[in-house]
Specification:
With about 290 residues, this protein is an all-alpha fold. It is built from 15 helices and no strands. It has three domains: about 45 residues, no CATH class; about 110 residues, no CATH class; about 130 residues, Cyclin A, domain 1. The longest helix is centred in the first third of the chain and has 24 residues.
Length: about 290
């Protein structure tokens, strides 16, 4: 096991230390294995397109990221939108809107953007130990937040639930009572939207959540279908105690899984089921507007 872990770590290091990083090969390795902790920040930035895969242009791209961050931040500071007591997550949100949706500024209510703020806080904590210049790290935190938020918004309930019911019938084969109950209450058609929009932060163990997110960032959207199924399975006794869809949806909407062992178990089981069903070969059907 130790030898395998060292081999995986060596493969990731060799890929990331190349003068030209093969992004497709990197995605394939991320889908097969977990990224070692010290390499996660750089790997995620490459997958998101924030860091250049070419060593020769990396400094130029880093500077361009800092310049864009500084310009947006300075503009909003001059306009009084960003003030000294504005939280970093709210600063990120205002900059995101200025860059992508300027007509939505100023923000009168942050309720609509709670997933964005949650992702911002998570990413800032994730990059806290990244030993680079502070401005560069902050700029990259903002860019990562924006890109990940956009990815989760695009991962709509309609697309995810297109395949959820079918896979649930297979995964719950040995839980017929639970499957009948969930089907009767149409729970597979009512999964809380915020689960998708904030990247399933009801899983409160950071390491477990990072292991799921990196599969998604490497191109495996299907991983969340299995995560939904195993979250429901974890809560099966509680779900069976409710008799109406409203009660179940209230419970799921408020759900937070705080026990680290439970989080780890759900994520490990989700990844195992995903791999068993085809892993990275799984893909959503094409969406027709």
């Amino acid at each position: 096991m130790i030898l395998i872990q060292r081999t995986v770590q060596t493969v990731f290091k060799e890929l990331l230390e190349s003068d030209t990083i093969n992004v497709e090969k990197l995605k394939q390795h991320v889908q097969k294995n977990s990224i070692v902790a010290e390499l996660k920040p750089l790997c995620w930035k490459i997958l998101l397109g924030i860091k250049s895969p070419y060593r020769a242009t990396r400094r130029y791209v880093d500077q361009a990221n800092c310049d864009m961050y500084t310009y947006l931040h300075s503009t909003l500071t001059t306009c009084g939108v960003i003030q000294t007591d504005t939280s970093i997550s709210q600063q990120f949100l205002s900059m995101y809107l200025l860059d992508s949706h300027p007509t939505k500024l100023p923000v009168t209510s942050t309720k609509e953007y709670e997933p964005f703020l949650s992702i911002a806080n998570f990413i800032c904590a994730f990059l806290d130990n990244d030993n680079e210049q502070r401005l560069e790290v902050t700029a990259e935190c903002w860019l990562m937040t924006c890109k990940i938020y956009d990815k989760f918004v695009q991962l709509t309930r309609r697309i995810a639930l297109l395949v959820l019911n079918k896979i649930a019938q297979q995964e719950f084969l040995h839980e017929p009572k639970l499957l009948l109950h969930l089907n009767t209450q149409n729970i597979f058609g009512c999964i809380p939207e915020k689960w998708l929009k904030d990247g399933f932060q009801l899983i409160t163990d950071d390491i477990s959540l990072l292991n799921i997110w990196e599969k998604f960032l490497a191109g495996s959207e299907y991983i969340f279908v299995f995560l939904i199924i195993h979250i429901l399975h974890h809560c099966r006794l509680k779900l069976l105690s409710f008799y109406t869809t409203k009660e179940i949806m209230q419970y799921l909407g408020d759900l937070k899984i705080t026990d680290q062992a439970d989080c780890e178990h759900i994520v490990i089981a989700s990844i195992a089921s995903w791999k068993k069903q085809g892993g990275s070969l799984l893909d959503f059907p094409a969406s027709h507007n």
